[in-house]
Amino acid sequence: MTATIALIAWIVNTAIGFVLLARVLRARRRVPALAYYHLVTSMVGLGVWIAFVATGSTLLAWTGFAVLTLHLTLGDTLMVKGWRKSNPDARGIVYFRAMTSLLKRPIPLAHACISPLAWFPALAAAVISS
């Protein structure tokens, strides 16, 4: 059950990520390389996770979880770097400030809020499969 919850959240969040990427491309803004790494790790991890759900392999569960963790780390880095680019003189808890800036942007906010809905069930599924 937890593997399925993670899978659904992962698919929904990947779709939202594609919407965000399409908006950036449509606006003809430069897409940072980190955004492509974020996208690739999402797709690779999703493929591994689907294979885990199909087979129940513990190795695939932990590999998928590891790729998901890397993917979320890249996403957080991308968010903070983007915020810092807009606020170069800001000090303090930058991650928190970058997260609160998403309150004004509903699609990126949804993308950030769905991430734990994939990560925690994926962790639980990996632990349960062990």
H/E element order: HHHHH
Quote the beta fraction: under 5%
Count of extended strands: 0
Q: Describe the biggest sheet?
A: none
Rounded average pLDDT: 91
In a few lines, what is going on in this structure?
The chain is mostly helical and 130 residues long. The protein is built from 5 helices and no strands.
Keywords:
single chain, 130 residues, mainly alpha, elongated
Report on this model:
- There is one protein chain.
- With 130 residues, this protein is mainly α.
- Helices cover 84% and strands 0% of the residues.
- It is built from five helices and no strands.
- The chain has helices at 2-26, 33-55, 58-86, 94-101, 106-129.
- The chain is elongated, with a radius of gyration of 15 Å.
- It starts with a helix and ends with a helix.
Q: Topology of this structure?
A:
Elements: H1 2-26, H2 33-55, H3 58-86, H4 94-101, H5 106-129
Helix pairs in contact: 1-2, 1-5, 2-3, 3-4, 3-5
